[in-house]
Amino acid sequence: MGRAGGISVRRIRLWALLLLVVLPISGCWSRIELNDLGVVLALGLDVGEEEAVRLTVLIPAPSAPGQSGGGGGAGGGGSGAASPVWVAVREAPSVSDAMQMLQQAAPRRLVRHHMRVVLISEEYARTHGVGDILDALANDLQARMTVRPFIVEGRAEDLLENQPPLRPYQPMHLTGILQAAGGVEWRLKDILVGRVSETHSTWMHAVKLVTRPAGAPGGFLLGSVISGAALMRGDSLVRILHPPESQVFEWFFGIPKEMIMSAPCPKGEAGTFSGHVLQAKMVTQPLVEGGQVKFRVTVTVHMNMSRSECNVEVRRRSDRTRLEEAMAAELRGQFEKVIAAMQEAGVDPVGFGKRLQLAYPAYFRGIRDRWSEVWPTAPVEVETKVTIRQAGLMKAPAIRTDRELQEWR
Amino acid sequence: MQVRISGGLYASILFCLASVTQFMTLTSPLIEASGQEAWISALLGGGYGLALTLLVAWICSRFPGRDPLAAATPWLSVPIRLLYAVLQLLFYSLALRDITDFIEVVLLPGTPGILIGGVLCAVSLYAVMNGLEPMARVAFGATCWSVLVLSLLPVGLTREFNILQIDPFLWEGPIRVLRGAVVAMPGAGEALLVLSLLRHLSPKVNPYKWTLIGLGGGVLVVAYALVLITLVFGSVLPGRQIYPGFELLAVVSITEGIERLQAAVITVWIFAAVAKIAGVLYGAVEEGGLALGLRRRQLFAPAVAGLAASRLWKGVLQEVTYMGRTGWVLALITLEVAVVLLLAVAALAARVPRGRGQRG
Question: What is the value of ipTM here, to two decimals?
Answer without folding.
Answer: 0.85
